[in-house]
Amino acid sequence: MNFNRNEALKNLSTIPEWDIVIIGGGATGLGTALDAASRGYKTLLIEKYDFAKGTSSKSTKLVHGGVRYLANGDIKLVLSALKERGLIFKNAPHVSFVQSFVIPSYSIFNKLKFLIGLKLYDWMAGKLRIGKSTLLSKETVIEKLPKIKTKGLIGGVQYYDGQFDDARLALNLGQTAAEQGATILNYTEAKSIEKDVNGKVIGLTFVDTETNESYSVKSKAIINATGIFVDDILKLDTPTHKNLVRPSQGAHIVIDKKFLGNEDALMIPETSDGRVLFGVPWHGKVLLGTTDTPLNAHQIEPRPLEEEIAFILSTANDYLEHAPTRKDVLSIFAGLRPLAAPTAGNENSTKEISRDHKLIKSDSNLVTITGGKWTTYRKMAEETVDMAIKAGKLAPSPCRTTDLHIHGFTHDKREGHWQMYGTDTDKIQALAKESPALAEKLHQDHEYIAAEVIWACRHEMVVKVEDFLARRIRLLLLDAEASLAVAPKVAELMATELDKDQTWIDEELLSYQKLVANYML
Fold it and tell me: Could you tell me if residue 291 is left (phi over 0), alpha (psi between -120 and 50 degrees) or otherwise beta?
Protein backbone atom coordinates (compact mmCIF):
# COMPACT_ATOMS: atom_id res chain seq x y z
CA MET A 1 0.00 0.00 0.00
CA ASN A 2 1.26 3.50 -0.84
CA PHE A 3 2.07 5.84 2.03
CA ASN A 4 -0.76 8.17 1.10
CA ARG A 5 -3.32 9.59 3.51
CA ASN A 6 -6.29 9.63 1.11
CA GLU A 7 -5.67 6.03 0.10
CA ALA A 8 -5.42 5.02 3.76
CA LEU A 9 -8.76 6.68 4.57
CA LYS A 10 -10.43 4.90 1.63
CA ASN A 11 -8.99 1.61 2.87
CA LEU A 12 -10.96 1.90 6.12
CA SER A 13 -14.19 0.90 4.38
CA THR A 14 -12.69 -2.21 2.77
CA ILE A 15 -11.87 -4.12 5.97
CA PRO A 16 -14.89 -5.05 8.16
CA GLU A 17 -12.72 -6.15 11.09
CA TRP A 18 -9.05 -5.53 11.82
CA ASP A 19 -6.80 -7.95 13.62
CA ILE A 20 -4.89 -5.21 15.43
CA VAL A 21 -5.57 -1.48 15.82
CA ILE A 22 -2.77 0.64 17.31
CA ILE A 23 -3.29 4.03 18.92
CA GLY A 24 -0.12 6.13 18.75
CA GLY A 25 2.29 6.97 15.95
CA GLY A 26 5.57 7.43 17.77
CA ALA A 27 8.52 5.03 17.77
CA THR A 28 6.70 2.29 19.69
CA GLY A 29 3.41 2.53 17.82
CA LEU A 30 5.01 2.60 14.37
CA GLY A 31 7.36 -0.23 15.29
CA THR A 32 4.38 -2.23 16.52
CA ALA A 33 2.45 -1.58 13.30
CA LEU A 34 5.42 -2.82 11.30
CA ASP A 35 5.77 -5.94 13.46
CA ALA A 36 2.06 -6.76 13.23
CA ALA A 37 1.74 -6.13 9.48
CA SER A 38 4.88 -8.08 8.66
CA ARG A 39 3.40 -11.10 10.48
CA GLY A 40 0.39 -10.89 8.18
CA TYR A 41 -2.15 -9.31 10.53
CA LYS A 42 -4.67 -6.76 9.24
CA THR A 43 -3.23 -3.70 10.95
CA LEU A 44 -4.45 -0.13 11.42
CA LEU A 45 -2.54 2.66 13.18
CA ILE A 46 -4.03 6.03 14.13
CA GLU A 47 -2.07 9.02 15.43
CA LYS A 48 -3.66 12.16 16.89
CA TYR A 49 -0.93 14.49 15.60
CA ASP A 50 1.84 13.86 13.08
CA PHE A 51 4.08 10.81 13.27
CA ALA A 52 6.72 11.23 16.01
CA LYS A 53 5.54 14.76 16.84
CA GLY A 54 6.09 14.12 20.54
CA THR A 55 9.03 12.57 22.33
CA SER A 56 10.03 10.35 19.40
CA SER A 57 11.35 13.32 17.38
CA LYS A 58 12.96 15.10 20.34
CA SER A 59 15.54 12.62 21.59
CA THR A 60 19.30 13.16 21.93
CA LYS A 61 19.59 11.34 18.57
CA LEU A 62 21.55 8.44 20.10
CA VAL A 63 21.02 4.80 19.24
CA HIS A 64 22.80 3.34 22.24
CA GLY A 65 22.94 0.74 24.96
CA GLY A 66 22.97 3.39 27.65
CA VAL A 67 26.30 3.87 29.38
CA ARG A 68 24.64 5.50 32.38
CA TYR A 69 22.24 2.56 32.77
CA LEU A 70 25.29 0.32 33.02
CA ALA A 71 26.61 2.53 35.82
CA ASN A 72 23.27 2.08 37.57
CA GLY A 73 23.56 -1.70 37.31
CA ASP A 74 20.71 -2.17 34.83
CA ILE A 75 22.52 -4.95 32.96
CA LYS A 76 19.40 -6.45 31.39
CA LEU A 77 18.36 -3.16 29.77
CA VAL A 78 21.87 -2.47 28.46
CA LEU A 79 22.24 -5.95 26.96
CA SER A 80 18.89 -5.66 25.20
CA ALA A 81 19.64 -2.15 23.93
CA LEU A 82 23.09 -3.11 22.61
CA LYS A 83 21.55 -5.95 20.61
CA GLU A 84 18.83 -3.68 19.23
CA ARG A 85 21.41 -1.01 18.40
CA GLY A 86 23.11 -3.55 16.18
CA LEU A 87 19.82 -4.43 14.46
CA ILE A 88 19.09 -0.77 13.70
CA PHE A 89 22.52 -0.46 12.07
CA LYS A 90 21.79 -3.60 10.08
CA ASN A 91 18.25 -2.75 8.96
CA ALA A 92 18.31 1.06 8.71
CA PRO A 93 21.89 2.08 7.85
CA HIS A 94 20.65 5.13 5.90
CA VAL A 95 19.50 6.91 9.07
CA SER A 96 21.98 5.49 11.59
CA PHE A 97 25.76 5.45 11.89
CA VAL A 98 28.61 4.87 14.30
CA GLN A 99 29.65 7.92 16.33
CA SER A 100 32.93 8.38 18.20
CA PHE A 101 32.60 9.78 21.74
CA VAL A 102 35.39 11.25 23.83
CA ILE A 103 35.29 11.51 27.63
CA PRO A 104 37.88 14.06 28.80
CA SER A 105 39.55 13.09 32.06
CA TYR A 106 40.89 15.39 34.74
CA SER A 107 41.93 12.66 37.19
CA ILE A 108 43.72 9.33 36.77
CA PHE A 109 41.08 7.52 38.84
CA ASN A 110 38.20 8.66 36.61
CA LYS A 111 40.18 7.88 33.48
CA LEU A 112 40.68 4.28 34.55
CA LYS A 113 37.15 3.93 35.96
CA PHE A 114 35.55 5.00 32.70
CA LEU A 115 37.85 2.81 30.61
CA ILE A 116 36.95 -0.28 32.67
CA GLY A 117 33.24 0.50 32.41
CA LEU A 118 33.42 1.07 28.67
CA LYS A 119 35.44 -2.09 28.10
CA LEU A 120 32.57 -3.92 29.80
CA TYR A 121 30.17 -2.03 27.53
CA ASP A 122 32.13 -3.23 24.47
CA TRP A 123 32.18 -6.80 25.75
CA MET A 124 28.43 -6.84 26.39
CA ALA A 125 27.78 -5.89 22.75
CA GLY A 126 29.38 -9.17 21.67
CA LYS A 127 29.51 -9.71 17.92
CA LEU A 128 27.46 -6.51 17.45
CA ARG A 129 30.28 -4.38 18.89
CA ILE A 130 30.86 -1.31 16.72
CA GLY A 131 34.22 -0.07 18.03
CA LYS A 132 36.92 -0.53 20.63
CA SER A 133 37.23 1.71 23.69
CA THR A 134 40.74 3.11 24.17
CA LEU A 135 42.72 5.42 26.42
CA LEU A 136 43.69 8.74 24.89
CA SER A 137 46.60 11.01 25.69
CA LYS A 138 46.02 14.67 26.52
CA GLU A 139 47.32 15.62 23.08
CA THR A 140 44.92 13.24 21.33
CA VAL A 141 41.93 14.50 23.31
CA ILE A 142 42.78 18.06 22.27
CA GLU A 143 43.15 16.93 18.66
CA LYS A 144 39.71 15.29 18.73
CA LEU A 145 38.03 18.02 20.79
CA PRO A 146 39.89 21.23 19.87
CA LYS A 147 37.59 23.39 22.00
CA ILE A 148 37.99 21.38 25.21
CA LYS A 149 39.37 23.13 28.30
CA THR A 150 42.94 22.01 28.80
CA LYS A 151 43.60 23.14 32.38
CA GLY A 152 43.99 19.99 34.47
CA LEU A 153 43.32 17.73 31.49
CA ILE A 154 45.36 14.51 31.65
CA GLY A 155 43.82 12.57 28.76
CA GLY A 156 40.58 10.75 28.14
CA VAL A 157 38.74 7.72 26.88
CA GLN A 158 37.27 7.16 23.43
CA TYR A 159 34.33 4.83 22.86
CA TYR A 160 31.80 4.23 20.11
CA ASP A 161 28.04 4.31 20.09
CA GLY A 162 25.27 4.99 17.60
CA GLN A 163 23.59 8.09 16.27
CA PHE A 164 20.46 8.39 14.15
CA ASP A 165 17.74 10.70 12.89
CA ASP A 166 14.77 9.87 15.10
CA ALA A 167 11.92 11.47 13.14
CA ARG A 168 13.17 10.06 9.85
CA LEU A 169 13.43 6.54 11.25
CA ALA A 170 9.90 6.89 12.64
CA LEU A 171 8.60 7.93 9.22
CA ASN A 172 10.49 5.08 7.56
CA LEU A 173 8.92 2.60 10.00
CA GLY A 174 5.49 3.87 8.96
CA GLN A 175 6.38 3.59 5.28
CA THR A 176 7.69 0.05 5.77
CA ALA A 177 4.55 -0.92 7.70
CA ALA A 178 2.43 0.39 4.81
CA GLU A 179 4.54 -1.62 2.36
CA GLN A 180 3.78 -4.67 4.50
CA GLY A 181 0.05 -3.98 4.18
CA ALA A 182 -0.71 -1.80 7.22
CA THR A 183 -3.03 1.21 7.04
CA ILE A 184 -1.28 4.18 8.67
CA LEU A 185 -2.97 7.49 9.46
CA ASN A 186 -1.86 10.73 11.10
CA TYR A 187 -4.20 13.43 12.45
CA THR A 188 -6.78 10.92 13.64
CA GLU A 189 -7.85 11.09 17.29
CA ALA A 190 -9.26 8.16 19.28
CA LYS A 191 -12.55 9.19 20.91
CA SER A 192 -14.01 6.03 22.46
CA ILE A 193 -13.33 2.34 22.93
CA GLU A 194 -16.13 -0.08 22.10
CA LYS A 195 -16.69 -3.19 24.22
CA ASP A 196 -18.87 -6.29 24.06
CA VAL A 197 -21.35 -7.44 26.73
CA ASN A 198 -18.47 -9.00 28.68
CA GLY A 199 -16.52 -5.74 28.80
CA LYS A 200 -13.88 -6.80 26.27
CA VAL A 201 -12.61 -4.38 23.63
CA ILE A 202 -14.00 -4.99 20.14
CA GLY A 203 -13.35 -1.68 18.39
CA LEU A 204 -12.99 2.05 18.65
CA THR A 205 -14.22 5.34 17.25
CA PHE A 206 -11.85 8.02 16.00
CA VAL A 207 -12.08 11.35 14.25
CA ASP A 208 -10.11 12.65 11.28
CA THR A 209 -9.15 16.02 12.75
CA GLU A 210 -8.60 17.46 9.27
CA THR A 211 -12.22 16.91 8.18
CA ASN A 212 -13.97 16.21 11.52
CA GLU A 213 -15.33 13.01 9.98
CA SER A 214 -15.90 10.20 12.47
CA TYR A 215 -15.00 6.55 11.87
CA SER A 216 -15.87 3.40 13.81
CA VAL A 217 -13.80 0.27 13.31
CA LYS A 218 -13.96 -3.26 14.67
CA SER A 219 -10.82 -4.98 15.87
CA LYS A 220 -9.86 -8.23 17.58
CA ALA A 221 -7.07 -6.48 19.52
CA ILE A 222 -6.36 -2.85 20.42
CA ILE A 223 -2.95 -1.54 21.46
CA ASN A 224 -2.34 1.68 23.39
CA ALA A 225 1.12 2.95 22.39
CA THR A 226 0.68 6.65 23.06
CA GLY A 227 3.81 7.36 25.10
CA ILE A 228 3.23 10.08 27.68
CA PHE A 229 -0.48 9.98 26.79
CA VAL A 230 -1.12 6.32 27.70
CA ASP A 231 -3.12 7.32 30.76
CA ASP A 232 -5.51 9.36 28.61
CA ILE A 233 -6.33 6.25 26.56
CA LEU A 234 -6.54 4.06 29.65
CA LYS A 235 -9.14 6.48 31.00
CA LEU A 236 -11.20 5.92 27.83
CA ASP A 237 -11.10 2.25 28.80
CA THR A 238 -11.56 2.73 32.57
CA PRO A 239 -12.63 6.23 33.72
CA THR A 240 -11.35 5.53 37.26
CA HIS A 241 -7.87 4.58 36.06
CA LYS A 242 -4.99 6.00 38.14
CA ASN A 243 -2.01 7.36 36.23
CA LEU A 244 0.62 4.83 35.26
CA VAL A 245 3.15 7.30 33.82
CA ARG A 246 5.19 10.14 35.29
CA PRO A 247 6.71 12.41 32.61
CA SER A 248 10.36 13.40 32.78
CA GLN A 249 11.58 16.22 30.57
CA GLY A 250 14.76 16.06 28.57
CA ALA A 251 15.86 19.45 27.23
CA HIS A 252 18.36 20.19 24.45
CA ILE A 253 19.97 23.22 22.85
CA VAL A 254 21.47 23.40 19.37
CA ILE A 255 24.59 25.45 18.59
CA ASP A 256 27.05 25.90 15.76
CA LYS A 257 29.62 23.13 15.30
CA LYS A 258 32.46 25.63 15.84
CA PHE A 259 31.92 25.37 19.60
CA LEU A 260 32.94 21.70 19.70
CA GLY A 261 35.43 21.12 16.95
CA ASN A 262 35.66 18.02 14.79
CA GLU A 263 33.47 14.96 14.17
CA ASP A 264 33.92 13.46 17.63
CA ALA A 265 31.21 13.85 20.24
CA LEU A 266 31.77 15.00 23.82
CA MET A 267 30.47 12.89 26.68
CA ILE A 268 30.43 14.38 30.18
CA PRO A 269 29.78 11.41 32.48
CA GLU A 270 29.22 13.24 35.76
CA THR A 271 27.64 16.68 35.72
CA SER A 272 27.05 18.78 38.82
CA ASP A 273 23.83 16.89 39.53
CA GLY A 274 25.37 13.48 38.83
CA ARG A 275 23.90 12.96 35.38
CA VAL A 276 25.30 12.61 31.86
CA LEU A 277 25.54 15.38 29.26
CA PHE A 278 26.38 14.98 25.58
CA GLY A 279 27.69 17.34 22.94
CA VAL A 280 26.92 15.57 19.68
CA PRO A 281 27.58 16.65 16.07
CA TRP A 282 24.28 16.30 14.18
CA HIS A 283 23.38 17.49 10.67
CA GLY A 284 26.19 20.05 10.70
CA LYS A 285 25.31 21.48 14.11
CA VAL A 286 25.97 20.39 17.70
CA LEU A 287 23.30 19.10 20.05
CA LEU A 288 23.87 19.73 23.78
CA GLY A 289 21.76 17.75 26.26
CA THR A 290 20.01 16.32 28.00
CA THR A 291 18.31 17.05 31.31
CA ASP A 292 16.09 14.83 33.43
CA THR A 293 13.40 16.95 35.07
CA PRO A 294 10.36 15.29 36.68
CA LEU A 295 7.08 16.96 35.78
CA ASN A 296 3.53 16.58 37.00
CA ALA A 297 1.76 17.27 33.69
CA HIS A 298 2.27 16.35 30.06
CA GLN A 299 1.82 18.29 26.82
CA ILE A 300 2.58 17.71 23.17
CA GLU A 301 4.91 20.74 22.81
CA PRO A 302 6.90 21.17 26.04
CA ARG A 303 9.45 23.98 26.23
CA PRO A 304 12.79 23.67 28.01
CA LEU A 305 12.69 25.33 31.40
CA GLU A 306 14.95 28.31 32.04
CA GLU A 307 16.86 26.34 34.67
CA GLU A 308 17.45 23.53 32.17
CA ILE A 309 18.87 25.92 29.59
CA ALA A 310 21.08 27.52 32.25
CA PHE A 311 22.26 24.09 33.41
CA ILE A 312 23.25 22.96 29.92
CA LEU A 313 25.09 26.21 29.13
CA SER A 314 26.80 26.22 32.53
CA THR A 315 27.97 22.62 32.12
CA ALA A 316 29.26 23.39 28.62
CA ASN A 317 31.15 26.36 30.05
CA ASP A 318 32.86 24.04 32.54
CA TYR A 319 34.31 21.94 29.72
CA LEU A 320 34.62 24.14 26.63
CA GLU A 321 36.84 27.10 25.85
CA HIS A 322 34.81 30.01 24.46
CA ALA A 323 31.63 28.15 25.39
CA PRO A 324 28.29 29.14 23.82
CA THR A 325 26.07 31.71 25.46
CA ARG A 326 22.34 32.32 25.04
CA LYS A 327 22.91 34.46 21.94
CA ASP A 328 24.61 31.49 20.23
CA VAL A 329 21.65 29.12 20.62
CA LEU A 330 20.07 28.24 17.26
CA SER A 331 17.20 26.19 18.62
CA ILE A 332 15.90 24.67 21.84
CA PHE A 333 13.61 21.69 22.25
CA ALA A 334 12.40 19.24 24.86
CA GLY A 335 10.89 15.78 24.92
CA LEU A 336 8.91 14.08 27.66
CA ARG A 337 9.90 10.54 28.57
CA PRO A 338 7.01 8.27 29.57
CA LEU A 339 8.53 6.75 32.70
CA ALA A 340 6.70 4.31 34.91
CA ALA A 341 5.37 6.22 37.93
CA PRO A 342 7.56 6.16 41.08
CA THR A 343 6.66 4.61 44.37
CA ALA A 344 5.48 6.68 47.32
CA GLY A 345 8.27 8.79 48.79
CA ASN A 346 10.24 9.00 45.52
CA GLU A 347 7.97 11.39 43.61
CA ASN A 348 10.71 13.91 42.83
CA SER A 349 13.48 11.56 41.74
CA THR A 350 13.62 10.28 38.18
CA LYS A 351 16.45 7.99 39.32
CA GLU A 352 13.77 5.92 41.08
CA ILE A 353 11.66 5.57 37.93
CA SER A 354 12.12 2.53 35.70
CA ARG A 355 13.91 3.13 32.39
CA ASP A 356 12.63 -0.20 31.05
CA HIS A 357 9.30 -0.58 29.30
CA LYS A 358 6.11 -1.83 30.85
CA LEU A 359 3.58 -4.03 29.06
CA ILE A 360 0.08 -4.38 30.50
CA LYS A 361 -3.15 -6.14 29.51
CA SER A 362 -6.23 -4.55 31.09
CA ASP A 363 -9.29 -6.52 32.17
CA SER A 364 -10.89 -5.36 28.93
CA ASN A 365 -8.00 -6.92 26.95
CA LEU A 366 -6.68 -3.49 25.98
CA VAL A 367 -2.90 -3.88 25.58
CA THR A 368 -0.77 -0.96 26.78
CA ILE A 369 2.95 -0.49 26.15
CA THR A 370 4.81 2.37 27.79
CA GLY A 371 8.30 3.43 28.90
CA GLY A 372 11.40 2.09 27.24
CA LYS A 373 13.70 3.95 24.83
CA TRP A 374 14.05 4.54 21.11
CA THR A 375 16.82 2.00 20.71
CA THR A 376 14.64 -0.88 21.90
CA TYR A 377 11.54 0.03 19.85
CA ARG A 378 11.72 -3.22 17.81
CA LYS A 379 11.90 -5.54 20.83
CA MET A 380 9.12 -3.61 22.56
CA ALA A 381 6.98 -3.98 19.45
CA GLU A 382 7.64 -7.72 19.28
CA GLU A 383 6.57 -8.25 22.88
CA THR A 384 3.52 -6.03 22.41
CA VAL A 385 2.29 -7.91 19.34
CA ASP A 386 2.87 -11.23 21.13
CA MET A 387 0.55 -10.04 23.91
CA ALA A 388 -2.00 -8.70 21.42
CA ILE A 389 -2.09 -12.09 19.68
CA LYS A 390 -3.15 -13.70 22.94
CA ALA A 391 -5.54 -10.91 23.91
CA GLY A 392 -7.28 -10.98 20.52
CA LYS A 393 -7.09 -14.77 20.12
CA LEU A 394 -5.28 -14.35 16.80
CA ALA A 395 -3.65 -17.22 14.95
CA PRO A 396 0.00 -17.22 16.08
CA SER A 397 2.63 -15.93 13.67
CA PRO A 398 6.33 -15.41 14.47
CA CYS A 399 8.08 -12.03 14.56
CA ARG A 400 9.79 -11.13 11.28
CA THR A 401 11.46 -7.79 12.03
CA THR A 402 14.91 -9.01 13.08
CA ASP A 403 16.07 -9.09 9.47
CA LEU A 404 13.54 -6.77 7.85
CA HIS A 405 15.09 -3.85 5.97
CA ILE A 406 13.51 -0.47 6.71
CA HIS A 407 12.25 1.77 3.89
CA GLY A 408 15.15 3.70 2.38
CA PHE A 409 17.65 0.96 3.19
CA THR A 410 21.00 1.48 1.55
CA HIS A 411 24.63 1.11 2.57
CA ASP A 412 25.51 3.95 0.21
CA LYS A 413 26.33 6.76 2.63
CA ARG A 414 25.13 9.94 0.94
CA GLU A 415 26.68 13.31 1.66
CA GLY A 416 24.96 15.85 3.87
CA HIS A 417 21.29 15.53 4.70
CA TRP A 418 20.68 13.25 1.70
CA GLN A 419 21.69 10.26 3.78
CA MET A 420 18.37 10.38 5.63
CA TYR A 421 16.42 9.74 2.41
CA GLY A 422 18.33 6.58 1.56
CA THR A 423 17.10 5.04 -1.69
CA ASP A 424 14.61 7.88 -2.21
CA THR A 425 17.46 10.35 -2.80
CA ASP A 426 17.77 9.72 -6.53
CA LYS A 427 13.99 10.07 -6.99
CA ILE A 428 13.96 13.44 -5.23
CA GLN A 429 16.91 14.67 -7.25
CA ALA A 430 15.20 13.48 -10.45
CA LEU A 431 12.12 15.46 -9.39
CA ALA A 432 14.31 18.53 -8.95
CA LYS A 433 15.43 18.25 -12.57
CA GLU A 434 11.84 18.66 -13.81
CA SER A 435 11.90 22.37 -13.05
CA PRO A 436 14.63 24.87 -12.14
CA ALA A 437 12.39 26.17 -9.33
CA LEU A 438 12.31 22.76 -7.67
CA ALA A 439 16.11 22.64 -7.56
CA GLU A 440 16.32 25.96 -5.69
CA LYS A 441 17.43 25.99 -2.07
CA LEU A 442 14.78 26.81 0.48
CA HIS A 443 17.37 28.75 2.50
CA GLN A 444 20.81 29.92 1.40
CA ASP A 445 22.50 28.52 4.52
CA HIS A 446 20.99 25.03 4.27
CA GLU A 447 21.00 22.35 1.59
CA TYR A 448 17.25 21.61 1.53
CA ILE A 449 15.57 22.22 -1.83
CA ALA A 450 12.01 22.86 -3.01
CA ALA A 451 11.66 19.39 -4.55
CA GLU A 452 11.79 17.90 -1.05
CA VAL A 453 8.54 19.68 -0.19
CA ILE A 454 6.80 18.19 -3.21
CA TRP A 455 8.20 14.75 -2.44
CA ALA A 456 6.99 14.95 1.15
CA CYS A 457 3.48 15.89 0.02
CA ARG A 458 3.31 12.97 -2.39
CA HIS A 459 5.12 10.25 -0.47
CA GLU A 460 5.55 11.21 3.20
CA MET A 461 2.03 12.19 4.31
CA VAL A 462 2.69 15.79 5.33
CA VAL A 463 -0.45 17.66 6.34
CA LYS A 464 0.94 20.81 7.96
CA VAL A 465 3.90 23.10 7.34
CA GLU A 466 5.42 22.02 10.66
CA ASP A 467 5.32 18.37 9.56
CA PHE A 468 7.79 19.19 6.83
CA LEU A 469 10.03 21.70 8.61
CA ALA A 470 10.22 19.87 11.94
CA ARG A 471 10.19 16.19 11.00
CA ARG A 472 10.51 15.47 7.24
CA ILE A 473 13.53 17.74 7.25
CA ARG A 474 14.89 18.86 10.64
CA LEU A 475 15.27 22.58 10.08
CA LEU A 476 13.13 23.65 13.06
CA LEU A 477 15.44 21.79 15.44
CA LEU A 478 18.62 22.85 13.67
CA ASP A 479 17.93 26.53 13.09
CA ALA A 480 14.56 27.80 14.28
CA GLU A 481 14.98 31.28 12.79
CA ALA A 482 15.89 29.88 9.36
CA SER A 483 12.88 27.58 9.46
CA LEU A 484 10.62 30.58 10.08
CA ALA A 485 12.16 32.39 7.12
CA VAL A 486 11.40 29.55 4.70
CA ALA A 487 7.91 28.78 6.03
CA PRO A 488 6.08 31.03 3.49
CA LYS A 489 7.79 29.31 0.55
CA VAL A 490 7.05 25.87 2.00
CA ALA A 491 3.42 26.80 2.60
CA GLU A 492 3.01 27.97 -1.00
CA LEU A 493 4.54 24.79 -2.40
CA MET A 494 2.39 22.62 -0.15
CA ALA A 495 -0.79 24.55 -0.98
CA THR A 496 -0.24 24.01 -4.70
CA GLU A 497 0.49 20.31 -4.26
CA LEU A 498 -2.31 19.64 -1.74
CA ASP A 499 -4.87 21.89 -3.44
CA LYS A 500 -5.17 24.37 -0.56
CA ASP A 501 -6.21 28.03 -0.74
CA GLN A 502 -4.75 31.28 0.59
CA THR A 503 -6.75 31.00 3.80
CA TRP A 504 -5.01 27.70 4.51
CA ILE A 505 -1.62 29.30 3.84
CA ASP A 506 -2.36 32.18 6.21
CA GLU A 507 -3.59 29.87 8.98
CA GLU A 508 -0.60 27.56 8.60
CA LEU A 509 1.89 30.41 8.78
CA LEU A 510 0.25 31.85 11.89
CA SER A 511 0.25 28.41 13.52
CA TYR A 512 3.89 27.86 12.60
CA GLN A 513 4.96 31.25 13.96
CA LYS A 514 3.42 30.34 17.32
CA LEU A 515 5.19 26.96 17.28
CA VAL A 516 8.61 28.39 16.43
CA ALA A 517 8.42 30.74 19.41
CA ASN A 518 8.66 27.62 21.56
CA TYR A 519 12.00 26.72 19.96
CA MET A 520 13.70 30.10 20.34
CA LEU A 521 15.27 31.87 23.32
Answer: beta
Instruction: Report which of 239, 242, 244, 234 is spatially closest to residue 365, judged by C-alpha positions.
Output: 234
Q: Which fold has domain 417-517?
A: Helicase, Ruva Protein; domain 3 (1.10.8)
Q: List, in sequence order, every residue forming a beta bridge with 356; answer none if it has no partner.
A: none
First to last CA, the chain: 42
Give the residue extent of every domain in the chain: 5-55+167-244+350-391, 94-163+246-340, 417-517
- What pLDDT, on a 0 to 100 scale, did the predictor assign at position 357? 85
Helix, strand, coil content of the chain in percent (nearest 5): 40, 25, 35
Q: Which residues of the chain have pLDDT under 50?
A: 343-354
Residue 341: its pLDDT value, please? 65
What is the spatial distance between Cα 354 and Cα 208, in angstroms, rounded to a whole number?
Answer: 35
- Cβ contact 265:289 at 8 Å: no
Q: Give the C-alpha separation, 349 to 464, whole Å.
A: 37
Q: Quick one: what percent of the chain has pLDDT higher than 90?
A: 85
Q: What distance in Å separates the CA atoms of residue 385 and residue 253, rounded to the nearest whole number?
A: 36
Measured CA to CA in angstroms, residue 403 lies from 163, 384, 412 at distances of: 20, 18, 19
Count Cβ atoms below 10 Å from residue 197 Cβ, excluding itself: 6
What's the pLDDT score for residue 342?
A: 52
Give the pLDDT score at 351: 38
Domain 5-55+167-244+350-391 has CATH 3.30.390.30: no
Please tell me the CATH code under which domain 94-163+246-340 is placed.
3.30.9.10
- Which pLDDT value is given to residue 261? 85
CA 206 to CA 457: how far, in whole Å? 24
Rounded CA separation 158/152 (Å): 18
pTM of this structure: 0.95
